[in-house]
UniProtKB/TrEMBL annotation:
<dbReference type="InterPro" id="IPR019775">
    <property type="entry name" value="WD40_repeat_CS"/>
</dbReference>
<feature type="compositionally biased region" description="Low complexity">
    <location>
        <begin position="46"/>
        <end position="58"/>
    </location>
</feature>
<keyword id="KW-0677">Repeat</keyword>
<feature type="domain" description="CTLH">
    <location>
        <begin position="102"/>
        <end position="173"/>
    </location>
</feature>
<dbReference type="GO" id="GO:0043161">
    <property type="term" value="P:proteasome-mediated ubiquitin-dependent protein catabolic process"/>
</dbReference>
<dbReference type="InterPro" id="IPR036322">
    <property type="entry name" value="WD40_repeat_dom_sf"/>
</dbReference>
<feature type="repeat" description="WD">
    <location>
        <begin position="543"/>
        <end position="575"/>
    </location>
</feature>
<feature type="repeat" description="WD">
    <location>
        <begin position="288"/>
        <end position="321"/>
    </location>
</feature>
<feature type="compositionally biased region" description="Polar residues">
    <location>
        <begin position="1"/>
        <end position="22"/>
    </location>
</feature>
<feature type="repeat" description="WD">
    <location>
        <begin position="330"/>
        <end position="371"/>
    </location>
</feature>
<dbReference type="InterPro" id="IPR051350">
    <property type="entry name" value="WD_repeat-ST_regulator"/>
</dbReference>
<comment type="function">
    <text>Involved in the proteasome-dependent degradation of fructose-1,6-bisphosphatase.</text>
</comment>
<dbReference type="InterPro" id="IPR006595">
    <property type="entry name" value="CTLH_C"/>
</dbReference>
<dbReference type="InterPro" id="IPR001680">
    <property type="entry name" value="WD40_rpt"/>
</dbReference>
<feature type="compositionally biased region" description="Polar residues">
    <location>
        <begin position="31"/>
        <end position="45"/>
    </location>
</feature>
<dbReference type="InterPro" id="IPR015943">
    <property type="entry name" value="WD40/YVTN_repeat-like_dom_sf"/>
</dbReference>
<dbReference type="Pfam" id="PF00400">
    <property type="entry name" value="WD40"/>
</dbReference>
Length: 594
């Protein structure tokens, strides 16, 4: 199709609280086993120690472990054994090596936080005067990371204390903590106002909901300890799950170096990782030819079971993925359909048309649900709100160019801008709405408040925009043959993907794809399909859709070894990692590529 014009919290908290969804798997491990997290380890802590409290005296120095500091390796292993629940093995390793996981002061600090002894916790952390059995244990306090604001850390401790007092319905003491302990720290005024508003909560449940906090008996103390430990020098308090994190980094590094990694399954630690090209979708296994003219857009349904295609002949064809039988043929062969948008539950689809209409269809019956009022220019794009109750249309006109509609066809909101919109994208979490004009501008809106957050002038004609599933990265395909990936929060360009294919005056739709969206895939006016490794920016494959323009590509969201391409030759090609007979005999592939 020729282009026209040839992660803050709602309450302002400074640290995250649980919203009742429960801890992550790593955190669950910490709750049961972590030496830095939730319970006292059986490892001996009180033997004679060196200055930093980790190694016993009288131990003969031993050589490094393959170039690594022996004490660091041993302490990490002790922590890992404790995380795994092998307490006896951890204790034996500590005794045999002469290295303790941590000093007695750190153990006391952990217990103080987990038991809610906020005075002792603060004294141990900052070295304030504290006597226990006539002996000062505060000293100079635990060593904080360089650059850590002590008042911020104090605020976290006192905030937990304040919330627990409110949970106990001791409003008087909570008010004193707010006035005498939190306010003097001069933290964010909005945050203080928010905490003050919690004094009006009528019940404990009301408090937990408004503060997004699960109480003293929940995981809030464990999360606080985890956050506090990240501010303490790792030589004093080992970061949580250090061995697991190091192994994750190794795996990520190996995956980033593997050009053809296209599976969601985790690599083995037993050997260096590499994937074979034969498992990558490089083979055109099927050709769909139901269109009588140029195909402008192709899109898999969210569950990967159907494929919608549309183009110049004014029809939208919906195929069953697998049998590739036609399920529905929507539209009238009058003017072209620019693009389609599946609803989140795949029960409806919107067709954006050259005849100045947008139509909402029932996918199961093939009947139109509602036809929006006629626009003054072609409808270029549509995106759905994540809840599936409304959608946004982008139109190549200066009026009603960016509007939100409900599924009854009623106008919910008109942004009232004069931008001529050619393409749209919305982040899966509903945070951002990105509108691309037919010129050189991108407008990024807060989709919740509908306010304009910022605008970008890319100084180039653009073809399409899309957003990664994690809601963080915007992919912009430009008419000069370059695609760029930008961070939506920082607004910085993360990676450029440059091909030697010439640009042009056509709408070429690019997208992320593959397992964990590891790839960027872009068609071209010359008919090529370029696939880049998203992490490294290296060109992985250059395939040929046809001799004329490849207008759109869509990677299956559930099968990383399949994508579709569409072009001016009127063909839709299905690409996979092997021939259809072999795929059929092996069964359909799941999201892990297995």
């Amino acid at each position: 199709m020729r282009a026209e014009g040839d992660n803050s919290t709602s309450n302002g908290t400074s640290r995250p609280f649980s919203n009742g969804s429960g801890p992550s798997p790593l955190h669950k491990a910490a709750v049961s086993n972590s030496a830095n997290g939730t319970r006292r380890s059986s490892i001996a802590m009180n033997g004679s120690s060196s200055t930093n409290g980790h190694s016993n005296s009288g131990i003969k120095p031993r050589p490094p472990y393959f170039g690594h500091d022996r004490e660091e390796v041993t302490r990490i292993l002790i922590q890992a054994l404790t995380d795994l629940g092998y307490d006896n093995a951890a204790s034996t390793l500590s005794q045999e090596s002469g290295y303790n996981l941590e000093s007695p002061a750190v153990a006391k600090f952990r217990n103080a936080v987990l038991q809610g002894d906020w005075t002792q916790a603060e004294n141990l952390l900052f070295g304030d005067s504290l006597e226990e059995g006539g002996v000062s244990i505060g000293g100079n306090g635990l060593v904080l990371q360089q650059g850590v604001d002590r008042n911020v850390v104090r605020f976290w401790l006192r905030e937990q204390k304040f919330l627990e007092l409110l949970e106990q319905r001791d409003t008087g003491k909570a008010l004193m903590v707010l006035r005498l302990e939190l306010t003097p720290l001069y933290q964010d005024t909005n945050k203080l106002h928010f905490l003050s508003s919690l004094l009006m909560c009528q019940s404990t449940e009301d408090l937990k909901v408004k503060a997004e906090w699960d109480g003293a008996e929940g995981d809030s103390r464990h999360r606080l300890l985890s956050e506090l430990s990240s501010c303490i020098s790792p030589s004093v308090m080992l970061p949580e799950h250090r061995l697991a994190i190091l192994m994750q980094q190794v795996k990520r590094h190996q995956i980033s170096k593997c050009l053809y990694h296209n599976t969601a399954s985790s690599p083995s630690l037993y050997q260096d990782h590499s994937c074979d090209r034969s498992n990558f979708p490089t083979h055109p296994i099927l050709e769909l030819d139901k269109h009588t003219g140029e195909v402008w857009h192709v899109k898999f349904s969210n569950d990967g079971t159907r494929l919608a295609t549309c183009g110049k002949d004014g029809t939208c064809v919906i195929y069953d993925v697998g049998s590739w039988e036609v399920l529905q043929c929507l539209g009238l062969p009058e003017k072209g359909i620019c693009s389609v948008a599946w609803s989140p539950d795949d029960s409806m689809i919107v067709t954006c048309q050259m005849d100045y209409y947008a139509i909402l269809w029932d996918v199961h019956t093939g009947k139109p649900i509602v036809k929006l009022p006629r626009f003054e220019q072609p409808v270029g794009a549509c995106v759905w709100a994540p809840d599936g109750r409304s959608f946004v249309t982008g139109v190549l006109d200066k009026e009603r160019n960016l509007c939100q509609w409900n599924t009854r066809g009623e106008l919910i909101f008109d942004w009232g801008k004069s931008h001529r919109i050619q393409d749209l994208a919305v982040s899966p979490n509903g945070r951002f709405l990105v509108a691309m004009t037919n010129e050189k501008m991108i407008y990024v809106y807060n989709f919740i408040t509908r306010d304009l957050e910022y605008e970008l002038d890319l100084d180039a004609q653009m073809c399409s925009v899309s957003i990664s599933q994690n809601g963080r990265y915007l992919l912009v395909n430009k008419a000069d043959g370059e695609a760029c990936m930008l961070d939506l929060e920082s607004r910085e360009t993360i990676k450029n993907f440059r091909s030697d294919d010439p640009g042009g005056n056509y709408v070429i739709r690019a997208s992320y794809g593959g397992a964990n969206e590891s790839f960027v895939i872009v068609g071209s006016e010359s008919g090529n399909i370029n696939i880049w490794h998203k992490e490294s920016g290296q060109l992985v494959e250059k395939l040929q859709h046809g001799k004329s323009s490849c207008n759109a590509v869509s990677w299956s969201p559930t099968d990383p070894s399949m994508f579709a391409s569409a072009g001016d030759d009127g063909k839709v090609r299905i690409w996979a990692d092997m021939d259809p007979q072999k795929r059929h005999s092996n069964g359909s592939r799941n999201s892990n590529g297995r």
